[in-house]
C-alpha cells in the first residue's frame, strides 16, 4: 500500500528543495556544472549503503535530495549555454510529477484514456502548425526514436514487404554529413548499414546544395533527410528547394526539425521552415524549444496511414483486433509515458503565443551574442546565426581547453563542434534568464582564459 502520509511529507520536501534549487540556479549564485568523479558522489550520497539497507525517511530524504541536487548540471542557470536541452518550465515538471504517481502507459487507450486524449489534441495542434492537414502523428521518448520511427514509415512506403522479408539491399538514405547521428544510427538498426547512408553535397557551412545533387541510379532511396535546423550550427536547409527535388522524383522527404520546428510558433522566424509542408514526415522535439523536460518528441506524417504502415505486430495478450484509439501501432513503445501532458500544460499555462515569444527571445539573444562577439578583436564567427546556436573561435586558442577550464570552475557551460574541419566553440542559448550581462561575461572569461600569444 502507498503510505499517503509519507508521500505527502516527501512531496512537500521535494517541492521545497526544488524551488530553492531553481531559484539559486536562476540567480547564477552557484556553479552551473559540477562533475566530480562517480566514486566521490556515490560516497557523498551514501548510495551503496542505501541500496543495501534502505531506511530512507521523509527527514533523511531531505538531506539526500539537497546533496543530490548540488551535484550535476543546472539548466536553469543563465550560464548554461551547452546542449539543446530545455530549461524546463514548471508546468512540464508538474506533468512529470503527475505521471510519476499515476503511471498510465497510454499507448494502449484503455490504460490511460485522459493521457491519450491529451496526446491526440497536442498532435492535432502540431500537425496544424506543420501544415499537414489530414496527417497523423505520435509522441516518442526523444528525437532519435522519432527519426527512427519516421524512417521506418519511409521504408514501408519504399518497400512494403520489408517488415516480413527484411530490408532489401538496394535501399539507401540520402542525407547531408551534418545530419544528426541518429539518422545513420537508424540506418544500422534497420539493417541497412552505414554504407547505405549516401552523403549529399553541401556548402561550406553544411547546408544542402540542391543544384549539386546527383541523380540516384541503381539504388532506391528510402528518404532524403534535411535539417531544420542542423544540430551543430543551427542553420537551416532550403526545405522548399529540397522538397520540390524530392517530389519531382517521388522520394520521401523527411525533415529533422527536432530543434528548429518550434520556430513555427514565432511569426518572425517561421519563414526558416518555408517548404516544410512539402515534407512527408517531420520530427519536432518539445524538450528543446517548447521547454518540456526530457523526453517528448513528435513524429508527424503528411498522410494518415503512413505511420500505421511502419509497424506490424501480433500479440494476443495486447492486440484484440480493432485497436480503436490505441497508439501502439504507430510507435516502438508500448509502455509510453504521458508525454502529451507535458506539452499541453506548457501550452495551457503560456499559450501558443507565449511559447513563440520564448523562441523568438532566445533566437534574439543568440544573435545579440554574435553582435557582441564580432565587435571584439580576435573573435571569428563563420556565419550569422539563424537560430539560438552560434559557433565561433577566439584567436588560435584551443577551443577544448577554453571549454574545459570554464567547466572546471563552473563559470560557464558550453560545447564545441567541428566546422569545415576546424573545431569551434558553440553556444546554445536555451535559458530565459540569459541576457547581455551573461553574454558579455562569457566573452570576458574567454579572453581572460586565453594566453595572450593566441588571441590573434
Automatic annotation (TrEMBL):
<keyword id="KW-0663">Pyridoxal phosphate</keyword>
<dbReference type="GO" id="GO:0033983">
    <property type="term" value="F:diaminobutyrate decarboxylase activity"/>
</dbReference>
<protein>
    <submittedName>
        <fullName>L-2,4-diaminobutyrate decarboxylase</fullName>
        <ecNumber>4.1.1.86</ecNumber>
    </submittedName>
</protein>
<feature type="modified residue" description="N6-(pyridoxal phosphate)lysine">
    <location>
        <position position="288"/>
    </location>
</feature>
<keyword id="KW-0456">Lyase</keyword>
<dbReference type="GO" id="GO:0004058">
    <property type="term" value="F:aromatic-L-amino-acid decarboxylase activity"/>
</dbReference>
<dbReference type="GO" id="GO:0005737">
    <property type="term" value="C:cytoplasm"/>
</dbReference>
<dbReference type="InterPro" id="IPR002129">
    <property type="entry name" value="PyrdxlP-dep_de-COase"/>
</dbReference>
<comment type="similarity">
    <text>Belongs to the group II decarboxylase family.</text>
</comment>
<dbReference type="GO" id="GO:0030170">
    <property type="term" value="F:pyridoxal phosphate binding"/>
</dbReference>
<dbReference type="Pfam" id="PF00282">
    <property type="entry name" value="Pyridoxal_deC"/>
</dbReference>
<dbReference type="InterPro" id="IPR015421">
    <property type="entry name" value="PyrdxlP-dep_Trfase_major"/>
</dbReference>
<keyword id="KW-0210">Decarboxylase</keyword>
<dbReference type="InterPro" id="IPR015424">
    <property type="entry name" value="PyrdxlP-dep_Trfase"/>
</dbReference>
<dbReference type="GO" id="GO:0019752">
    <property type="term" value="P:carboxylic acid metabolic process"/>
</dbReference>
Amino acid at each position: 500500500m502507498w503510505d499517503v502520509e509519507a508521500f505527502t511529507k516527501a512531496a512537500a520536501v521535494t517541492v521545497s528543495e526544488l524551488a530553492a534549487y531553481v531559484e539559486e540556479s536562476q540567480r547564477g549564485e552557484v556553479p552551473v556544472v559540477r562533475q566530480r568523479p562517480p566514486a566521490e558522489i556515490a560516497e557523498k550520497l551514501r548510495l551503496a549503503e542505501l541500496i543495501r539497507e534502505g531506511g530512507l525517511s521523509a527527514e533523511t530524504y531531505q538531506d539526500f535530495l539537497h546533496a543530490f541536487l548540488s551535484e550535476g548540471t543546472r539548466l536553469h542557470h543563465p550560464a548554461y549555454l551547452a546542449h539543446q536541452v530545455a530549461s524546463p518550465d514548471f508546468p512540464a515538471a508538474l506533468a512529470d510529477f503527475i505521471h510519476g504517481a499515476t503511471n498510465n502507459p497510454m499507448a494502449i487507450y484503455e490504460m490511460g484514456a485522459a493521457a491519450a486524449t491529451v496526446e491526440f489534441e497536442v498532435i492535432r495542434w502540431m500537425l496544424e502548425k506543420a501544415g499537414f492537414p489530414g496527417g497523423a502523428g505520435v509522441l516518442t521518448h526523444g528525437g532519435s526514436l522519432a527519426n527512427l520511427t519516421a524512417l521506418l514509415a519511409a521504408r514501408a512506403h519504399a518497400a512494403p514487404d520489408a517488415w516480413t522479408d527484411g530490408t532489401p539491399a538496394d535501399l539507401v538514405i540520402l542525407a547531408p554529413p551534418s545530419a544528426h547521428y541518429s539518422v545513420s544510427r537508424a540506418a544500422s538498426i534497420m539493417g541497412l548499414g552505414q554504407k547505405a547512408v549516401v552523403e549529399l553535397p553541401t556548402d561550406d557551412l553544411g547546408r544542402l546544395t540542391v543544384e549539386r545533387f546527383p541523380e540516384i541510379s541503381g539504388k532506391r532511396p528510402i528518404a532524403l533527410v534535411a535539417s531544420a535546423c542542423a544540430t551543430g550550427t543551427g542553420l537551416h536547409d532550403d526545405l522548399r528547394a529540397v522538397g520540390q527535388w524530392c517530389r519531382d522524383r517521388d522520394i520521401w522527404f523527411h525533415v529533422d526539425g527536432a530543434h528548429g520546428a518550434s520556430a513555427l510558433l514565432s511569426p518572425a522566424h517561421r519563414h526558416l521552415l518555408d517548404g516544410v509542408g512539402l515534407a512527408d514526415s517531420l520530427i519536432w522535439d518539445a524538450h528543446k524549444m517548447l521547454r518540456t523536460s526530457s523526453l517528448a518528441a513528435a513524429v508527424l506524417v503528411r498522410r494518415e496511414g503512413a505511420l500505421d504502415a511502419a509497424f506490424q505486430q501480433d500479440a494476443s495478450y495486447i492486440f484484440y483486433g480493432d485497436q480503436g484509439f490505441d497508439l501502439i501501432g504507430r510507435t516502438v513503445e508500448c509502455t509510453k509515458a504521458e508525454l502529451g501532458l507535458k506539452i499541453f500544460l506548457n501550452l495551457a499555462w503560456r499559450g501558443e503565443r507565449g511559447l513563440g515569444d520564448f523562441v523568438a527571445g532566445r533566437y534574439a539573444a543568440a544573435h545579440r551574442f554574435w553582435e557582441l562577439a564580432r565587435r571584439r578583436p580576435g573573435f571569428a564567427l563563420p556565419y550569422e546565426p539563424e537560430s539560438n546556436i552560434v559557433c565561433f573561435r577566439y584567436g588560435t586558442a584551443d577551443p577544448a581547453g577554453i571549454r574545459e577550464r570554464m567547466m572546471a570552475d563552473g563559470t560557464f557551460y558550453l560545447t564545441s563542434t567541428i566546422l569545415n574541419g576546424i573545431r569551434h566553440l558553440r553556444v546554445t542559448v536555451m535559458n530565459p534568464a540569459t541576457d547581455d550581462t551573461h553574454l558579455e561575461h562569457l566573452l570576458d572569461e574567454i579572453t581572460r582564459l586565453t594566453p595572450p600569444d593566441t588571441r590573434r
